[in-house]
Specification:
mainly alpha; 65% helix; flat; TPR-like_helical_dom_sf
Length: 478
């Protein structure tokens, strides 16, 4: 019987096997005669693994392994492989260089500006500027590869590495790459210098090049925004005066930047003066500026004035959005003006659109509740308005029930979180552990702590300290 079975298994057959849809990766330089000259591109993960297993090998050996793969190079494939090596510049560079050399031989592939931008970004991020210059020299030999996006990446990476002189020097090399040295490009240079806190250098450059690049309000705004982000209100005020004294008229962005900086530093008087001056000058504030003023007034407990601004902006045609209402509701809840809170919520519901209450609105409402029976009412209203539950809302409700020591509510919320796929997460366990310990239920706190640790969640330092004082030990993993 066994002999017959062997004969059947090893009997030559003339039956043609049907091709399977599975992608095949070829590791030979030539394909079988009945196949096409090259197989479909392998998925990026395949090339990622091929490179990963040869990370410590010389570049020549890595390229030899890549040569043995027969596939067409495309921008999409090369970009995806580079993207997977953003933190491994060496392999990214080896693959990019190989793609440049082999692409022409294989299917005439030449990397586009998108791919070149990616390798420039990788090398710049890892501060490999010597290798970056080599790539740049090769790219410059092909027309149209170095475009505005690639150049912006170059400037950004030099500024990010705090190489201010090199960034400025690279800017003046634009003509070598067929790019105009214009005001827009100069503004991009200033922006990236300011973004990486080189505001003083940016302003010095801005003033020194005024004859070559006549200043406009956008350029002034870049410098002003830089000082404001640094929190240097003294320099921001000085620059504001320079802007007002110049031939450039402040626009909405100028006002918004300066007003926000003043309110953040607690200089509400200056911010209000600017705000009212805008109306007088015919430069009507937008909703962003109004929201900033309303929030600052509420923070200073000047709620009646905030409501006046709210009323005034609507009268002048500046329509509020959900952030406007949320600022008022947040502070109204703090001072327990609940009648006004629900009046605002009803107004939001009637206006709909971008005023419809969101998860932030309902979190303020829930945080103001005093009894467990009020929770379902707010959640039902939330559901009616089409606002879905999320992990923040679930954890807030869980914390409220735990503070009220309503264990039925805690159990229902916990089960619903699990059922709807919103946790429990580390915050949920932290709430349960601290809540049970505060209520003297050490056994329950211990159970949740062990469950948390068994899931691989690391407790917060305060939780570890509290649990340690209670002598609770995590259960050993098996």
């Amino acid at each position: 019987m066994l002999r017959q079975l062997r004969r059947c298994l090893f009997k030559p057959s003339t039956t043609t096997l049907l091709p399977t849809p599975t992608t095949r990766f070829l590791h030979s330089l030539s394909d079988p005669p009945h196949r096409e000259s090259s197989s479909p591109p392998p998925p990026p993960v395949y090339l990622q693994n091929l490179l990963k297993f040869r990370r410590d090998k010389p570049a020549v050996e890595v390229e030899r392994a890549l040569d043995l793969c027969s596939f067409h190079l495309t921008d999409e494939l090369v970009f995806e492989v580079l993207k997977r090596h953003r933190s491994d510049w060496r392999l990214a560079l080896v693959f990019f260089n190989w793609a440049c050399k082999s692409g022409l031989k294989r299917n005439g592939y030449v990397p586009s500006s998108v791919v070149c931008n990616e390798i420039v970004d990788i090398l710049g991020k890892m501060k490999r500027f010597e290798e970056l210059h080599q790539v740049l020299d090769e790219m410059s030999q092909r027309e149209g590869v170095i475009n505005e996006s690639v150049f912006a990446t170059l400037i950004r990476r030099y500024a990010g590495a705090h190489k201010v002189e090199e960034a400025v020097g690279m800017f003046y090399r634009r003509k070598e790459f067929g790019l105009e040295v214009d005001s827009e490009a100069f503004r991009t240079l200033l922006m990236w210098l300011c973004r990486y806190k080189h505001v003083e250098d940016a302003e010095t450059l801005f003033h020194s090049q005024m004859s070559e690049f006549p200043p406009d309000i956008k350029s002034w705004n870049v410098i002003l925004h830089g000082w404001c982000v640094l929190g240097n209100t003294h320099e921001a005020k000085r620059l504001w005066k320079d802007i007002v004294a110049s031939n450039c008229k402040p626009d909405l962005f100028t006002y918004a930047t300066f007003i926000k900086a003043m309110t953040k530093k607690g200089k509400l008087g200056t911010a209000l003066k600017l705000f009212h001056g805008m109306w007088d000058k015919g430069c009507n504030p937008d909703v962003v500026i109004c929201n900033c003023i309303i929030d600052a007034l509420c923070f200073k407990k000047r709620v009646p004035e905030a409501l006046e601004v709210f009323k005034f902006m609507r009268e002048r045609g500046c329509e509020p959005n959900v952030a406007t209402y949320n600022s008022l509701i947040k502070h109204m809840c703090k001072i327990r003006r609940m009648e006004k809170v629900y009046e605002l919520v009803s107004d939001m519901e009637s206006r709909k659109g971008n005023c419809l209450p969101n998860a932030v609105t309902y979190s303020y409402l829930l945080g103001s509740l005093k009894e467990p029976r009020e929770v379902p009412v707010v959640l039902a209203r939330m559901e009616r308005n089409g606002c879905s539950m999320n992990d923040d809302i679930y954890n807030l409700v869980l914390r409220l029930y735990m503070e009220w020591d309503d264990q039925d509510g805690v159990r229902r919320t916990w089960e619903e979180m699990e059922r709807n796929g919103w946790g429990p997460d580390r915050r949920s366990y932290t709430i349960m552990i601290h809540g049970h310990l505060e209520n003297g239920r050490t056994k329950d706190a211990s159970r949740y702590f062990r469950e948390m640790v068994s899931k691989g969640m690391r407790p917060e330092p305060r939780t570890e300290k509290l649990v340690s004082s209670m002598n609770i030990q995590p259960k050993e993993r098996t």
